[in-house]
Amino acid sequence: MIRLVVKPHEETGGEMVQVWDGDVFVAGVYPHEDGVRVVSKYLDGVDTEPVYPPAVVVKFSMGEPIEAG
Length: 69
Known about the structure:
- It is a single chain.
- 0% of the residues lie in helices and 59% in strands.
- The protein has no helices and 6 strands.
- The protein has strands at residues 2-8, 15-21, 24-32, 35-39, 43-49, 55-60.
- The strands form 2 sheets. The chain has a 4-stranded antiparallel beta sheet with strand order 1-2-3-4, with no helix packed on it. It has a two-stranded antiparallel sheet with strand order 5-6.
C-alpha cells in the first residue's frame, strides 16, 4: 500500500513528500520552479487524465517487485 509522508528536505529545509510502499522508499516529491519534481528509480511513466480539473497519474515500475535495499 502506497503511503505519503511530509518531511523537511535535508538539503533545502523546505518540505518534501516521501512516497513509501511498505518499508521501501519509492519516490520523493519536491517543489520545482516550473511546478513539481518527482524523483524515483522506479518511475515508469506519467499519464494525463482528461478530466476537470486536469490530473496526472505517476506510474512506478511494475516489471519487477519493489524491494527494500
